[in-house]
Specification:
alpha/beta; Rossmann fold; Ubiquitin-like (UB roll); 3 domains; six-stranded mixed beta sheet; 11 helices; globular; binds guanosine-5'-triphosphate; binds magnesium ion
Length: 369
């Protein structure tokens, strides 16, 4: 039996086995085995000369537009950026990944228009795997849905999941350290719904013989496997609904219903018309907030405060992070900093490298000569 058949057989067995306490360990083992085989298959095919898209990551953040063919991804990219991505009234106009740069609030946000995801893309058909590798490297996935095809959302999400992209969730809180002896020891700071035996089975299947496993959240089998496999990425996502120019106002309620049916709060989905350039300001605003970025205005000696080109950092960044992003020898020469704005107790507050900055702070670094 080839790897692909083995994977198919495992999938089948998993879906045919009812889940209960007595089958839990068995299912755990099967799922771990499946994850292992999929990884192997992947390594094989990438060794066989599979080449991903080499889109260089530039700017402060990268956003991937994910959608079926012809939903308007290229039109949208063109409307948002200066790039000229080919737009056509037939499917698969975009045979390659098109990058464009969106300037928003002083940040450079790279937008990637990826070819339409199709059925089976995650299994390497239709060049889908290369497309998905682009999504994996992004800081945010934006699902582009056409107003008449909201249901495509589930398929897109499934494709991403299959390709080990986890949306809107934190990485599992689990650590495993290999030991020389003593078998597998499980410690958990919270109560687990899975029995210890299941956890051990899954780890053994992954090849652990002696190891200390520490869990800090209640995990199910899938998240346990995610936690012990490499290669999972965790990125936020959002939804935009395109081609709203084609519907009557009354139909909007139907669209909202469809969104709710897929657990998308209608208020969180951004309604746009890429063609008529409507709703694009809300979309940019929403992309910005989903990326979780903030602007730091640098007060440069002799040059004043630079409001045009802020330093763009992830929310929660510190003065040390700002120094690092600035590069050079700022970190080594750092004496103290002065901060004014939302994070400061008062103007020109003197702070150290550990100070947590906030959006629109003004920052001045005082350095050693
Ligand atoms: N009415 C209307 N048509 C749109 C809108 N956005 C895109 N279109 C049309 O939809 C068709 C497909 O648009 P593209 O931007 O090429 O779609 P795509 O998602 O990039 O498609 P692929 O590259 O094939 O994956 C084109 O004829 C566009 O003119 C919109 O907001 N309203
Ligand atoms: Mg396109």
């Amino acid at each position: 039996m080839g790897l692909e058949e083995e994977i198919e057989a495992l999938r089948e067995e998993i879906s045919n086995t009812p889940y209960n306490k007595s089958t839990e360990s068995h299912i755990g083992r099967l799922k771990a085995k499946l994850a292992e085989k999929k990884e192997k298959l992947e390594n094989q095919s990438s060794a066989g000369g599979g080449h991903g898209y080499a889109v260089e990551k530039t700017g402060d953040a990268t956003v991937a537009f994910v959608g079926f063919p012809s939903v308007g991804k290229s039109t949208l990219l063109n409307a948002l950026t200066a790039a000229d991505s080919e737009v056509g009234a037939y499917e698969f106009t975009t045979l390659d990944v098109n990058p464009g740069m969106l300037q928003y609030r002083g940040a450079n946000i790279q937008l990637l228009d990826v070819p339409g995801l199709i059925e089976g893309a995650a299994h390497g058909r239709g060049g889908g795997r290369e497309v998905l590798s682009v999504v994996r490297a992004a800081d945010l996935a934006v699902f582009v849905l056409s107003v008449f095809e909201i249901d495509q959302y589930e398929r897109l999400k499934a494709e991403l999941y299959e390709n080990k992209i986890r949306l809107d969730e934190e990485p599992p809180s689990i650590s495993v350290s290999k030991k020389g002896m003593g078998g597998i020891k499980v410690t958990s700071s919270v109560e687990q719904e899975m029995s210890e035996d299941v956890i051990k089975e899954v780890l053994r299947e992954r090849g652990y013989v002696n190891a200390d496993v520490t869990l800090r959240e209640n995990l199910d089998i899938d998240r346990l496997i995610d936690g012990i496999m490499d290669n999972r990425v965790y990125i936020p996502s959002m939804v935009t609904v395109n081609k709203v120019d084609l519907i009557d106002p009354e139909y909007a309620e139907t669209v909202r219903e469809r969104l709710r049916a897929h657990d998308i709060a209608p208020a969180d989905a951004v309604f746009i018309s890429a063609e008529e350039e409507k709703g694009l300001e809300s979309l940019k605003e929403s992309i910005w907030s989903n990326l979780g970025l903030m602007r730091i205005y640098m007060d440069k000696p002799g040059r004043g405060i630079d409001y045009d080109e802020p330093l763009v950092l992830p929310e929660g960044s510190t003065v040390a992070d700002a120094c690092e992003k600035l590069g050079g020898d700022f970190e080594q020469r750092f004496r103290f900093a002065r901060v004014s704005g939302p994070s400061a107790k008062h103007d020109e507050q003197q702070v150290g490298t550990e100070h947590v900055l906030a959006d629109e702070d003004v920052l001045r670094l005082v350095l050693r000569k």
